[in-house]
Every structure is written in C-alpha cells, then in structure tokens.
Amino acid sequence: GMQSHLQALLSLYKLFCPEQVTITLPGKMKTYFKNSEGPWKAAMTAVRQRNQGSSPLSQAMFLGTPQPQSRKRKWNAQLVIPANSKNMSYLEEDRGKNSVCLYSTHRSFPVEQLQTFPQLLQNIHCLEFPSQMGSVLTNPLLLHYMNCVKDESIYLRLYFWMGQMLQEGCPWCVVDNSCEEEFKSFLETIYKAECFLQEGFTACEEFLYKTLPLWDGFCCRSEVLRVVSWIPLSSSSDIKSYLYNSLAQLFFTSSIYFKCSILESLRELLQNWLICNVVQEDLEFSS
C-alpha cells in the first residue's frame, strides 16, 4: 500500500537508484529521513567562511542540533559540589491542620560534608546525591558510593548530563568552537572516573559512535583515544560498524605515530574487556 512511510522509503531508493523504482511518487510528502550530506555541507561552509575571513556561521551543529548559546559559566563549575547539595525537598501533604511528611523518618547527610571513607560507611544509607551530577566525577567517595549502590536513577541523571555536555562542547561538531582546552580537560576527568570505576560510561559510548565519523584524528587525540579504551563490551557487529570503520578511515591515511596510538588504544580496550569479564565471572561463580 501507499502509506506515507513507505513512500518516503521508496523516494530514498529512487534518489540513489532511480532504475529500481518505476512507480510515480507524489511531489510532496512527509520527510522521514534526514539529509546525510548535511553535516559535511555545514563543515565545508564553515571552513570556506573561515578562510574568507567572514563572520562565523550562526547555524548549526554538525549533528543537526542548534548551536548552543555562549556559555558564560566555566565548564568546571559543574564539577564542584554546591554548598547546598540537596536536589529535592521532601514532599509534604497538607490536610487541614494535620501536615503529613511522607519522608518524616528519612535523615539525609549533606554530601558537601563528606570528607573521609569512614564517614561514607557510617552514612551510606542516608546520602543524597548533589543537584550537579558532574561533581560526582571528581569525588572519589561519591564514585565509591556509585559502585556500592546500584541505583538506576543515579546513572540516568549522570548520563543525561554527561551526554549534553559532550555534545555541546565537542570542538569538531560545533561550528567555531574555541573551547578545545576545556573539552580536553573534561574528557580527561571522564577518563579518570572510568579508570576508578573500572567501567565505561554509556553516554561516552554514544558520543563516540556519533562523532568519530566527523573526527579529524587530530583534535583532542590522546584524550579521545583514552576514552575509546573504555567503551563497554558490545556485539562485534556494533563495534565494527560504529568504531572500527570510523577509525580505519583515519588509520590508513595517517602517520605511523597515529597508527601506533590507535593500536595502543585498542589494546587497552581489549585489556579492559578482559578485566571486566573476569570480574563478572568471579561474581557469578561466588553466587
């Protein structure tokens, strides 16, 4: 049948292989597929305008999202635990004169007062994560807490924040972005947190898979390859299509130093996979 999504798929086939589609398609139809050439056109336009000395593009991230507004705050402002770290107030329900506190028995320990490991052990049942999830990355005690308390909401909050920060600050995805040094520092902080936890972040994996096809192999090279070494273990088909194919294009056209850097990163990736797999098997065996 001529459903709109099938028409869109047929129009895509007709664009690349017109001899395969012989039927007549309507001129106007709903767009289901983005133009794959968009990022490259935006990149070439940005380079052309930069070489001509004209004003930078007002449009565009290469990934298809609007360019973020200029950030007046520094990146590392998100990595410091705020003075008032409670991220939500207790819910109270007023019923006439009787006010019922739904968490009246709950006692929370302020995260900003957490200084020592014994304090963590004594208050681990009543800790509340800070409103700025980025501060977790630079706090070993909170990273210990993440390892002990497998709370999905903690990881969801951290991954959402991290994904936004990576996308907004990526120098090779945002037109005329001059925050490369800050982005290097941010990637280094993420890498240190991954080494501490001995596992990679899903937000980093998604970021790398989206942006490696646009990476020039030079910007933030050592930091990117370090984060690559902590990609979580996935199926071989995903690793090949999203990681190896993107790196191969750079590998065969780069210097011997870059080739060695990629091989070293992949060696560390394999080593980390083996370590994680051994730990998982030990846990299953002990249980």
Describe, in plain words, how this protein is organized in 3D.
Keywords: Centromere, Chromosome, Nucleus. This is CENPI protein. One of its GO terms (cellular component) is nucleus. It is found in: Chromosome, Centromere; Nucleus. InterPro entries: CENP-I. This protein is an all-alpha fold and 287 residues long. It has a domain at 180-286. Helix content is 51%, strand content 3%. It contains 10 helices and 2 strands, in the order ααββαααααααα. It has a two-stranded antiparallel ribbon. A hairpin with a 2-residue loop joins β1 and β2 (98-101). α5 (152-169) runs parallel beside α7 (202-211), α6 (180-197) runs parallel beside α8 (221-228) and α8 packs parallel to α10. The longest helix is centred in the last third of the chain and has 31 residues, at 256-286. The radius of gyration is 24 Å and the shape is globular. The protein starts with a helix and ends with a helix. Residues 54-74 and 86-105 have low confidence and may be disordered.
Number of strands: 2
- Total number of helices: 10
Rg measurement, Å: 24 Å
Structural class, from helix and strand content? mainly alpha
Low-confidence stretches: 54-74, 86-105
So what's the overall shape?
Answer: globular
Distance between the termini: 54 Å
Query: What is the subunit arrangement here?
Result: single chain
**Mean residue pLDDT:** 75
Order of strands, main sheet, comes to 1-2
The amount of beta strand, in percent, is: under 5%
What are the secondary-structure elements, in order, as H or E? Answer: HHEEHHHHHHHH
Helix content: 40-55%
User: What is the makeup of the main sheet?
Assistant: 2 strands, antiparallel
